[in-house]
Amino acid sequence: MSDLLFPAEPGQRSIARELYGLARDQPLISPHGHVDPALLADDEPFPDPARLIIVPDHYLTRMLLSQGIPPGRLGVPSRDGSPVEADGRAIWRLFAEHWHLFRGTPSRLWLEQSLSSVFGVTTRLSPATADSVYDEVAARLAEPAFRPRALFERFNIEVLATTESPLDDLAAHAKLAADGWGGRVISTFRPDDVVDMEFEGWASRVGQLGELTGEDTGTYKGYLAALRSRREAFIAAGATSSDHGHPTARTLCLSPVEAASLFARGLRGEADAADAETFRAHMLVEFARMSIEDGLVMQLHPGAVRNHNRWLHAAHGRDVGGDLPQATEYLHALTPLLDAYGNDPRLRVVVYTLDEYTFSRELAPIAGGYAAIYLGAPWWFLDSPEVLRRFREAVTESAGFYNTAGFVDDTRAFCSIPVRHDVARRVDAGFLARLVAEHRLPFDEAAETIVDLAYRLPKRVFRLGDAA
Amino acid sequence: MSDLLFPAEPGQRSIARELYGLARDQPLISPHGHVDPALLADDEPFPDPARLIIVPDHYLTRMLLSQGIPPGRLGVPSRDGSPVEADGRAIWRLFAEHWHLFRGTPSRLWLEQSLSSVFGVTTRLSPATADSVYDEVAARLAEPAFRPRALFERFNIEVLATTESPLDDLAAHAKLAADGWGGRVISTFRPDDVVDMEFEGWASRVGQLGELTGEDTGTYKGYLAALRSRREAFIAAGATSSDHGHPTARTLCLSPVEAASLFARGLRGEADAADAETFRAHMLVEFARMSIEDGLVMQLHPGAVRNHNRWLHAAHGRDVGGDLPQATEYLHALTPLLDAYGNDPRLRVVVYTLDEYTFSRELAPIAGGYAAIYLGAPWWFLDSPEVLRRFREAVTESAGFYNTAGFVDDTRAFCSIPVRHDVARRVDAGFLARLVAEHRLPFDEAAETIVDLAYRLPKRVFRLGDAA
Amino acid sequence: MSDLLFPAEPGQRSIARELYGLARDQPLISPHGHVDPALLADDEPFPDPARLIIVPDHYLTRMLLSQGIPPGRLGVPSRDGSPVEADGRAIWRLFAEHWHLFRGTPSRLWLEQSLSSVFGVTTRLSPATADSVYDEVAARLAEPAFRPRALFERFNIEVLATTESPLDDLAAHAKLAADGWGGRVISTFRPDDVVDMEFEGWASRVGQLGELTGEDTGTYKGYLAALRSRREAFIAAGATSSDHGHPTARTLCLSPVEAASLFARGLRGEADAADAETFRAHMLVEFARMSIEDGLVMQLHPGAVRNHNRWLHAAHGRDVGGDLPQATEYLHALTPLLDAYGNDPRLRVVVYTLDEYTFSRELAPIAGGYAAIYLGAPWWFLDSPEVLRRFREAVTESAGFYNTAGFVDDTRAFCSIPVRHDVARRVDAGFLARLVAEHRLPFDEAAETIVDLAYRLPKRVFRLGDAA
């Protein structure tokens, strides 16, 4: 067993190894992520190594951008006509030349571990070995054992949640359900593009929502009914949670009349930025009400400034590494929601953050004092060994382990799923090992806790079935 | 000697043990806390284990609330007629069923260590052992050696400060002084309920203050005179400090005319929230002036949003776990006070925080640059091993050890006082051991420092007598 | 080799020693600091130990001030007629009496290490040894080997940047260049006093700028031309960077007409605080434009509230320990600059902070996503072992090592330069050793990285020549 990420001190390391051993082979619960369900519905072979691993991973392309290498040279599609490298091998070589930039980053860890544990490639990546690593991976990708479903099974994924807009017809999930393969791939209801008036084309999307559901989304009442109807459809497609990616954590209870009037203003194209923020805030409370009725667990992902890098957005579009975190206030922002439903155990809100400087001040005390709130795993820029450790160190004392929701990989990089969970299990084992070594927790309780964190807790919190 | 909380690395651990050994038996200085002085004045036996340990401890009841267990089921008195469990054993059992929630929390540490070191109960708490632990503790509580005064002596408490409103008649302290027992139990002057215009019934409290002192508190001048008069009474009851629990750290110097006019507006019931904040801010400077005259050390506890959990407040009242921390700004907030008296060594202000993300940015630089400012120990949500460690790591480099005020237990849980101090001594020993192990401080200086932190420094900073 | 600052765990320590061994003897690159160039131009012997070490070091005098010792007693010149101790030995003794205040601080480390490694004084400082330490240092200072240039050579300084106002005639640098000594001492262009309308005497300084350059600085156009002309002169004096010390990180793109009008308002003495902030913000973008033309690397040092301690400023003037950090927002503040030039690899902006609670939330993601941004070393209050470690732990995962700019000593204390760099090298070695010990980085890559951080990276980022 590798000692990757375990504390160096031999006593703690040995406890960490033992704890990790209990978690390592637990099935993977992936309650939130961005894998394309068509990947598994179609089960086609993956493309070449560069297109599989580099082109779609904005963690990788943004690091090279930060050193002056434009994403087009790494094959990221452009929408402004700027040149895009088409040759997978050339992309791979350019990337390998800059591999040293990733020292000390989680990307390095994920890629290296994926290469070895998924593809069996143990050659160290470097400019000199770029071609041979590329060839080894390419050879694997041609084998049936490296098709998506085969990997899904090998990865021991018990459940994988994808994320779709209410406008999605869920055809990929229907295909998966119909063909009897048996892997549990469920959807997540993510309504941002029909909730956020600042989303390009919001009003026309609201129109589509009406068409899709047969509700009159020209009225606020019909809009809510349409959302309820899509939630039912998502639940039928296995969804157990919704997801809400807002710029802030702000919540607000408008009266039905106020909400309807604001909604109408938005449809008329007269809403300004403050209106949009008000409507998003209000809709979080509206969704909380729906959650209490239909049982979907809410996930709240606030704090990203989308498309901050304007040139990058203009040249390459959304989700290519141009988003940035901003300071995020939770306490006052969540107060209206907490006042309304914070003590209702039927409601469950998993709160994430990009701002670790809220861990001990706001997030842990809130989760440790309200029945409805759970803390999501460190996310995105924080989805890394050092922060996973700091998360436990900062939140456990106020919130304990059992107000956290377990690890969430939140990735579109299918092949990195096992290593991401493995990293979290290793870091949790290291943290628990310290508690044991410092006589703060008996070993047997740490042993129960590591399995809870790895498996039982996310399953229970996300209502994915009884975790015995 | 137990190695609880000492770093795992054997070299550091051995230094930590040695340092801790020097601090362990130092008398306890408890310059700030919320023990009821009647407890010691009356010296009655404690009630049953649940009523002693669980019912009044909002750290415990809020954790269960966060998992959907309402505080009434744990015996917390209600004021809205909601049901309250009356049977101590039933409360204890319910609590034991949820004991796993406290893994990794200071509550677990405090309770476990109190059970063993105060009550001699070493049976591990669990659902299965709930009854036997209950019975063992109950048996102890019936013995004379477990009455409050006997414990006070066994705990080696040199001085214990309680906290009272200026409206308190200090009868318990008078009784203690009169009966010749000899334990040093002193009061602390906490004027929030006659200073904060938003405090329910403020104006009528100001009236009571007038009656109690014979001053005309219908005028601002009489109000100040009444406060001065109560401070004298508190000083006569042993007080060496005042305490101020404000929502923010804001300070302000109004002119006497402005202050008088604002005070009058408040009495007429015409003050709004901004007025109340202005008056609180101004009164901190007013109290600083009084401190320079009468020598009371000021304590400033800002940053709590009181009664944030509205349902909890409605059902169970104040101080039952419904308060939450908010982001707290110190630099600009304290500027008026610092401009006026920050360099005056006669003034001493001990500043606390619920927002650890001010440690290195604001608190340590301020304390390291103004003669009047000392840093209070991490408080409330931060009163825990991990934060005690992060506090030293974050503030020592700018403020040193000698601009900190030593450990403060700030507790109403009398039986937990020794273990809380013990935890702080252990964490400080671990931190100093690291400095020694990394050749940053010679052992003999670390040895002097650990005793200073445990005993001499709080005694000196809080003006509790010469610490030889 | 001393194990100072290395982690205690023997495995990690041994890796750290080995890594440090590779960095220890690398030449010192000091791309930003405040040494007086006349020191090296004149090469006079240093004054007495107190005047060399204590009087000018506000880290030292402010710590004593925080315990009620006024700076005049430590020889800090006063401008209000308050008494100033003139006897170096008396200053030294008073300081030694308070030496315990510095336990755990970087000042202690720097002074102790400077005494031993620069002056060969290994007697431990204490009240009892004050005189003998003083005499030993004084004896050394009389020797030719302890003149500034001799020390510069012994310190193995490859390049030392001083900092001057555009109004400086650079005579000291000219003298250095003329006399053929050969040590590389370069200037840095720091235009705050002609940019910040709130700087005392700004308008008359702008007038001097016109006289010095022959440009008509009564107009905005002439003002820009004058700044360009001074930048050329600085570049001729070896400068490769500019430095900007603003209260905030705010940037702004005014149109030329708006800028000219604001500038004129300032000259007329009609600008208020908001105008001054707007102009500073705008000028950062203006300087970015100039940097793209002339290649000077920009340094941005935001977040200090200057002269916060009003009494200290009144009595002793600027730069004597009365500045304090404030919370600093980077993301929205830098957006106008990033929108304009953030992806331009010709621009290079090294961003510093006094607010470590931006490391993982703002600074690392920005530096890891924009080609123009590099992270400067922890600065001033944060220039210490614990924060240097936390910096690596917090920023590496998003920004890697290669978006950081290497260590910057930023000091006016010439004799402390080697130990400051040594501390940074030791801390980086400890951090890299942990990555190696936890199997996150192979030793050979850590070995390359430590030398990059110590030498090659600062040389490259600050455009100080090719680092082979």
Automatic annotation (TrEMBL), chains A, B, C:
The enzyme's E.C. designation: 5.3.1.12
GO biological process: D-galacturonate catabolic process; D-glucuronate catabolic process
EC supergroup of this enzyme: isomerase
Pfam families, alphabetized: UxaC
An example Gene Ontology molecular-function term: glucuronate isomerase activity
Pathway membership: Carbohydrate metabolism; pentose and glucuronate interconversion
Keywords noted in UniProt: Isomerase
Protein name: Uronate isomerase
